[in-house]
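pls design
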C-alpha cells in the first residue's frame, strides 16, 4: 500500500519514531510542510500525484484544514489525524464549527482523534471515527534513573484566566501537602523536571482530553496523579487507578492518596513502573504508527467528492 503523509515540518522531531515505524509497514512518502506550504497543499501535492497513493494521511491544525476544505473534497482515500479538537465543539466556536459543517459533506473521510470529549459529539454526526494515541517521543521522554529530588511535585499551567479553576485546585493540593510546584517547562528542561519527581500531579479539568504531559511524565518514570476524566476515557487509555496511574476528583482524594503512597514505597514504585510500561507500549509514536496502520488497511467509504475543476463550488467553507 502506498501512503502519503502530510504534516508540518515543525512536528518532525516530536514525531520521531512514527514515520520510521510506518515506513516499515507501508510504502511511505512524507511531505514535511513549511507554514507557507501548509496553507495551500494543492500546490505541493496536486491532483495527479494524489491519485498515485492508496491512502493520504493529513495532520494539520484545524484552521488550515477548514480553509482548504475545497481541495480536501477532491482527495479520495483521505485520513485526517486531528489531535487538538477544542473541548467545546458547537455553534459559535469558529474553526470547530466549520469543521463540524465540513464533515457531513465528506463522509468518505476517516477521522482519527485521541480519546476525549470530541468522541461522543462526532459519533452522533455519524463520522467514520477512530481512536489513536497522542504519541510521544520515547527518545526524549525516558527515565534517566536519576535521584527523585521531590517525593511529589505539581506541574501547573502559566497564568491564564480560563485555567484559574484548574490551577486553584493544584494549589489547594500543594498547600495541604507541602509539595514542590513548577510551571511547565519545555524541551530538555521539562524532561529534567519529570525525572526529578517521584510523583507528578496534573490537572486536565476543562481540557478536551488528557494532555500529552500525562504520558510524558509516565514515560520519564514518575508516578502520575491526574484528574479523573471518567471511566470511558480511562478504559480506552489503559488507565487503572492505583495500578499504573493515580486518579483524583478533588483535593481531599488527592491528599489521601499522596499520604498512602508516602507510607507505601513499594506501591509507589509499582505504579511508576507500570505507568512507564503503559506509556511506552501504548502511547508512544511507535504505538501511534501501528494504530494508524490498522485504520489504513480497513476499507474507507466510497469516494463521492469533486474533481479539481469543481472544487470552487465549496469555497463557502473557507
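designed seq:
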Amino acid at each position: 500500500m502506498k501512503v502519503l503523509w502530510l504534516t508540518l515540518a515543525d512536528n518532525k522531531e516530536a514525531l520521531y519514531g512514527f514515520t520510521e515505524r510506518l515506513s516499515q509497514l507501508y510504502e511511505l512518502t512524507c511531505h514535511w510542510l513549511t507554514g507557507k506550504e501548509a496553507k495551500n497543499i494543492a500546490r505541493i501535492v496536486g491532483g495527479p500525484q494524489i491519485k498515485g497513493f492508496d491512502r493520504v494521511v493529513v495532520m494539520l491544525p484545524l484552521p488550515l484544514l477548514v480553509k482548504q476544505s475545497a481541495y480536501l473534497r477532491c482527495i479520495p482515500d483521505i485520513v485526517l489525524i486531528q489531535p487538538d479538537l477544542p473541548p467545546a465543539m458547537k455553534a459559535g466556536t469558529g474553526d470547530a464549527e466549520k469543521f463540524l459543517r465540513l464533515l457531513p459533506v465528506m463522509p468518505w473521510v476517516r477521522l482519527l482523534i485521541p480519546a476525549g470529549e470530541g468522541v461522543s459529539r462526532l459519533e452522533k454526526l455519524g463520522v467514520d471515527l477512530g481512536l489513536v494515541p497522542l504519541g510521544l517521543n520515547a527518545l526524549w521522554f525516558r527515565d534517566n534513573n536519576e535521584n527523585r529530588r521531590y517525593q511529589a511535585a505539581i506541574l501547573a499551567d502559566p497564568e491564564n484566566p480560563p485555567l484559574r479553576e484548574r490551577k486553584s485546585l493544584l494549589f489547594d493540593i500543594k498547600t495541604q501537602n507541602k509539595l514542590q510546584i513548577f510551571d511547565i517547562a519545555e524541551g530538555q528542561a521539562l524532561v529534567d523536571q519529570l525525572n526529578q519527581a517521584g510523583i507528578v500531579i496534573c490537572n486536565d479539568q476543562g481540557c478536551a482530553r488528557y494532555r500529552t504531559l500525562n504520558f510524558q511524565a509516565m514515560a520519564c518514570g514518575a508516578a502520575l496523579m491526574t484528574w479523573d476524566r471518567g471511566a470511558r476515557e480511562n478504559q480506552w487509555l489503559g488507565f487503572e487507578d492505583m495500578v499504573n496511574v493515580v486518579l483524583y476528583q478533588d483535593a481531599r482524594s488527592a491528599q489521601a492518596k499522596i499520604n498512602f503512597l508516602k507510607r507505601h514505597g513499594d506501591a509507589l514504585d509499582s505504579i511508576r513502573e507500570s505507568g512507564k510500561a503503559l506509556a511506552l507500549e501504548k502511547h508512544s509514536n511507535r504505538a501511534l504508527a501501528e494504530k494508524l496502520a490498522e485504520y489504513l488497511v480497513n476499507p474507507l467509504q466510497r469516494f463521492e467528492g469533486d474533481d479539481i475543476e469543481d472544487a470552487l463550488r465549496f469555497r463557502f467553507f473557507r
